[in-house]
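Consider this record:
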Amino acid sequence: MECRRFRITLISANDLPAVQDSGKTRVYAKVSLDGKRKTEKRTPADKEGQINPRWNFTLWYKVAEALIQQEDVNIAIKLYAENNLRDKYVGELNLPLKNLFDNGLTAEKVSYALEHKSSDASFSKGTLQMSYSFGEKIIVKNLAGWKKAADYGATILLKGTCLLVFGFVVEEEDDVGDHDVLVKP
């Protein structure tokens, strides 16, 4: 299956609505493709920025080329403020992946207006600064479930043996770690 690596760096947000009654606002972001839970990733909460959080946090996805070319596939970014009882919704941004791709393979520090949606109304409040890039096309093997499990088990066994015998583990050059999520149609 043809895929591309998609890197998105959430840099910061500005002028967010104040959603906390008291205390510090600690804002974090959840990022997903089309709101699908299996693709969801989260930034750490910013402890200092209040309504102007700074993250400079990078997330990686492997996205099927077919999905990038579809008009209706969005990158969803939702901001929340940590709260003792229940985290509070701050705002969101939904961007068609195809539009990002069509605007260029790389964009450094672009700003988008955030939308705050509630049951009563929807309004703009605050901005989100981010950068992104799409890598070159790569071929990803579409393995059956049992084959994936066997490959994963063999990898763990090999890495464990290397760690035990040599005291270190050699990582694959193409491996971007557990934060690399394959998203396919």
